[in-house]
Design brief:
Immunoglobulin-like
């Protein structure tokens, strides 16, 4: 009986080792990507993304939003209707994906940011609803995602308010 139990334990252990080895062989290879956010001397974010993928970091700045503005040093949440404006990323095959944008205001400009991990390749960036005067000249914006790198896209939109 003891030999049978030892044999069963050995089979279970070797079965788990085989299952673990199989899981490792089919899991996508991962890369470490280090990107700095905030103050470069104090904040570092480490992100792990699958091989063949990179990161998009996008920033939208639309303004001025009022005729006479006084920009403050602090940002406050944007009015609620901005939360419905999303970023739309279109890949080279025409497939689109929408992303929520984190909108804020500094008193003169609306500032929106988002980031996403996506496969390497060519893309275009747009907004779901862009009614400002400068939208046609600023968007869509083409960009390329490279494996293991962060691509930064800054979009400046002139609202036409003087």
């Amino acid at each position: 009986m003891v030999k049978l139990e030892i044999l069963l334990v050995a089979v279970v252990i070797s079965g788990m080792a085989l299952a673990f080895a199989a899981a490792l062989s089919i899991a996508p290879a991962m890369n470490q990507i280090t990107s700095t956010t905030g103050n470069p001397s104090s904040t570092t974010t480490v992100t792990t993304v699958p091989m063949g993928y990179g990161t998009l970091a996008a920033r939208f700045e639309a303004g001025p939003t009022v005729p006479v503005c006084h920009a403050s040093a602090t940002q406050e949440p944007a009015p609620t209707y901005y939360s419905s404006i999303e970023a739309v990323v279109t890949d080279s095959s025409g497939r689109t994906t929408s992303y929520a944008v984190d909108w804020a205001s500094n008193g003169c400009y609306m500032i929106g940011t988002f980031s996403a991990t996506m496969a390497s390749g060519s893309y275009s960036l747009n907004l779901t609803s862009c009614s400002w005067m400068g939208c046609r000249s600023a968007l869509p914006r083409s960009f390329v995602i490279y494996q293991s790198l962060t691509t930064t896209v800054d979009v400046s939109i002139n609202t036409g308010i003087a």
